[in-house]
């Protein structure tokens, strides 16, 4: 059975820019819910309140933020040793 949250998640995953904006918390959830409401209602086949979509977006944004933070930590742990070098000089010689 399709739920509002699953349909909202599918919709957001189809639009990477929205996924990024949600993860960063820079998007107005109420305005976004008003915009996507007709598509969610069409997919679900019944009336959907904006508040339900806002809650689904809020839960999804929290999850996306957690995933992004967790990925960064995982990458940093797997980097290993880092060597930083400065004042390097590059010489190029012409073969004569």
Automatic annotation (TrEMBL):
Keyword entries, A-Z: Kinase, Transferase
Molecular function GO labels: kinase activity
Protein origin, superkingdom: Bacteria
Protein name, as recorded: Aspartate kinase
Species the sequence originates in: Pricia antarctica
Lineage: Bacteria, Pseudomonadati, Bacteroidota, Flavobacteriia, Flavobacteriales
